Sequence to fold (119 residues):
Amino acid sequence: MVRASIIAAIAIAAFIAFLQLPNTFGAGHRRALAVMAVQLDAVPTGAELLKPLARAGDAIAQNDLGVLLNRGIDGKRDPLEAARLLNAAAAAGLARAQLNLLLLRSPAIPASVIAPSRR
Fold:
């Protein structure tokens, strides 16, 4: 019993230390953890794992976070931020972000936000 508690405490400490590493270190693992969190209905946790990666320019994280924001996190949708993130990921050449951007189109979102003019 004590041994299991010690192992659990070490695992939690290692996980917290992992999250404190630089934003782009272990990006694939962080994205995998975020997907796992969303699959386990811990959407806010998944979103928090994706935010630093998205801010650092990770196109896959931008796409995934954009989709989550459009669907809603804790009942709060942010379609404008979703469009911004999906635009950034699509501009980086991520095909699924381009598709998600097309799926995002709705009368509630101005076309200028979805496809900003290139000047």
Remarks:
- The longest helix spans residues 2-19.
- The CA atoms of residues 66 and 82 lie 4 Å apart.
